[in-house]
Design goal:
Blueprint: E1 2-11, H1 18-27, E2 30-35, E3 38-47, E4 50-59, E5 63-70, E6 73-80, E7 87-96, E8 101-106, H2 113-138, H3 142-151, E9 157-160, H4 164-172, E10 176-184, H5 195-198, E11 204-209, H6 216-229, E12 232-240, E13 246-250, E14 257-262, H7 263-269, H8 282-293, H9 295-299
Antiparallel strand pairs: 1-8, 1-9, 1-14, 2-3, 3-4, 4-7, 5-6, 7-8, 10-11, 10-12, 12-13
């Protein structure tokens, strides 16, 4: 199984800078936090102008299944998880302290960037509110209190770094865009008849179709702006090239991947690793090396 290092960007507003929030997580690790149906642990450390982190997701499963070959026949067996243990998935990240740009390590079934992003957004809101409340306690005039409340409206945002030149080149080369479909991990449903579903759904899918009369330049411009938010779980663009042949672009295929590893190689190196010591682990050193080799890229903010 492949483990990939994706380019990512974390953002907050100016009132509570990203570094202030991450410094808070350095001093206050997230331990056993129930989010998205699983317990999460997040450890963050600061070093040499960047923040590094380890995300651990535990799963309450007491047995796991193995497929093995025995005497030329395929056999399915179940095994117990060791006593006082839980199955766990891991994800590492590194982000530049000034730009919020860096790397997020991911493999199939591990914690998705969107899941971590929404968890951080919730934690950021709690942290920002605590700062706001301290200022409100010190304020005496109502107008001052109102200004303080308005001041702390920032949120935590994130996105994958896409190969913009690839995605935009594919867009520009299309003679016609037929549809744009995407799935987002959000529960903001505007249609009243669908409101009851919002309390049960974890994702919402939307599809936009474009007729032949639609201005290609306007459609391309609108899609580029939509992609700039990059909170999509999945996105698919369907169109036609100059020869009338159908073309399909998947946004996931255009994510910036900085390195790939084999899962077994990483797992072998993680034996007896204490989470608080993750910054000195074999794999984190690999990520640090990749990060430093692309330092100008990560230390320069995205324009436009």
């Amino acid at each position: 199984m492949k483990v990939k290092l994706h380019g990512v960007e974390f953002r907050t507003g100016s009132q509570v800078p990203l570094g202030v929030f991450l410094d808070y997580l350095v001093e206050n690790p997230i331990k056993g936090y129930e989010f998205g149906g699983f317990k999460r642990f997040v450890y963050v450390q600061s070093k040499d102008g960047y923040y590094s982190g380890l995300v651990i997701t535990t799963k309450d499963i007491r047995q796991f299944i193995e497929l093995m070959e025995k005497d030329g026949e395929i056999e399915i067996n179940s095994r117990d998880v060791s006593p006082n243990s839980e199955l766990a998935e891991f994800n590492f990240f590194i982000v530049n302290s000034k730009t919020g740009r860096g790397l997020y390590q991911h493999y199939y079934h591990s914690c998705a960037l969107n899941t971590l992003g929404f968890m951080f957004r919730k934690k950021f809101a709690e942290f920002s509110k605590s700062i706001c409340n301290r200022e409100l306690e010190a304020a005496k005039k109502e107008k001052d209190k109102k200004a303080i409340k308005e001041k702390y409206n920032d949120t935590f945002d994130w996105n994958y770094i896409c190969k913009k030149e690839n995605f935009e080149k594919l867009l520009i080369n299309m003679a016609r865009v037929k549809s744009f479909d995407f799935t987002v991990a959000t529960l903001n449903v505007d249609e009243p008849s669908l409101t009851p579903l919002s309390g049960m759904a974890s994702r919402v899918s939307q599809s936009y179709g474009f007729d032949k009369q639609a201005s290609l330049s306007s459609v391309v411009s609108a899609i580029k702006k939509a992609v700039a938010g990059k909170l999509f779980d999945k996105a698919k663009l369907v169109g036609e090239d100059q020869h009338g042949e159908q073309q399909v672009i998947f946004l996931e295929d255009n994510l910036e991947v900085f390195a790939e590893f084999e899962f077994d190689e990483i797992a072998e190196k993680m034996k007896s690793l204490h989470p608080q010591d993750f910054n000195d682990s074999w794999f984190m050193k690999k990520m640090q090396s990749t990060y430093k080799s692309k330092l100008p890229f990560f230390s320069t903010p995205i324009k436009g």
